[in-house]
Amino acid sequence: MKTNKKELGKEQNTKIESEKTENNKSIETDEKNSTTIEGKKPSLDDLSPKSKKFAKIYNAVRFIVIIAAGVALIYASYSLTESYLNYKDDEKKYASLNDMFIQDTKGNTGSDSSAGLNGNKALNNSEVSDSNSTANSTNSNTSNTGSSTTSSNSSSSDTLNYSADSKKWVWNYDAMLKYNDEAKGYIKLDGTRIQYPIFEHSDNKYYLKHGADKIYNGAGAIFIDYRTAGLEGDMCILYGHNMLDGSMFKEIMNFRDKDFCKKHPTFDIYIGRKHYIYYVFSVFSGKDVDEKIYQYGFENKSDFQSWIDRVYSKSTYKFDTRKPTTDDKIIMCSTCVDDYGNRQLVCMYRGEEVVD
């Protein structure tokens, strides 16, 4: 029994020593492999089958991401280039259209589209104050050099004569109708890029994506909401895009600025063959879903008066002009502020007719 125990002990010791030797060899092999991998760039052959599969998937995904990023960059560059070219094309078309109304002193069409862009209109010294201040009830008079006006709103004016200018801007409704048979008039805001014909279509979406020539164009055109009674109705809504290049109704956004309001208290609106001065009485921001603002008709005078009271009270500033009544013709210009339904609005009422 003693001999057997000794032999058993020897066998166990031998087994333990053998296991230690194997472990040491394994460690040496791992260290050697580790050194080999660290000493060179690892390849798929150095990885386990599971790691190889993961590496292949990772490389495939990375390749797809790189390709997708490249495609996105190319598309973005194309879109920006296309937008820029559309802007320039649109600018040239409207400049050419405006040139159609430039006449020299002999009545011939001029070639300088920049001449007469500000018209021969009088300077208006109307003031605005903060909404907490009291508005004066007297309007400044606006007149055109070489033109006569009739007004019940004004009592004084400061007129600037352009005696050296041999050309002037003259509205020609018949020529505009030949260009586009859906033309209804023209809107001008002196000293700005708001100088565009006004159109009306049976679908409001049409002129969101079509220019004055009825050709597809992302800048669209200035148009009447067909649900209103039009420019001769009690209240007419005009829409125009807020374009990044400053065109269309972009400068309607400037009515958020008090100084801009002081310098631009009136619009020139041409309706058919007639020319009117419109007085701004309210500027504010609103939601396109606000049915109390975007009304397309009024049941009676009382309903119309309620709307006037509402938009008048919303104005960011109080203008040096009277509050309109239900006997007035009102235009509300609307443009997008963002993609969340916010809109900038400018409300104006019809003043004197200008005899050009």
Automatic annotation (TrEMBL):
<protein>
    <submittedName>
        <fullName>Class B sortase</fullName>
    </submittedName>
</protein>
<feature type="region of interest" description="Disordered">
    <location>
        <begin position="1"/>
        <end position="48"/>
    </location>
</feature>
<feature type="region of interest" description="Disordered">
    <location>
        <begin position="109"/>
        <end position="159"/>
    </location>
</feature>
<dbReference type="GO" id="GO:0016787">
    <property type="term" value="F:hydrolase activity"/>
</dbReference>
<feature type="transmembrane region" description="Helical">
    <location>
        <begin position="60"/>
        <end position="78"/>
    </location>
</feature>
<dbReference type="InterPro" id="IPR009835">
    <property type="entry name" value="SrtB"/>
</dbReference>
<keyword id="KW-0812">Transmembrane</keyword>
<keyword id="KW-1133">Transmembrane helix</keyword>
<keyword id="KW-0472">Membrane</keyword>
<feature type="compositionally biased region" description="Polar residues">
    <location>
        <begin position="109"/>
        <end position="128"/>
    </location>
</feature>
<dbReference type="InterPro" id="IPR023365">
    <property type="entry name" value="Sortase_dom-sf"/>
</dbReference>
<feature type="compositionally biased region" description="Low complexity">
    <location>
        <begin position="129"/>
        <end position="159"/>
    </location>
</feature>
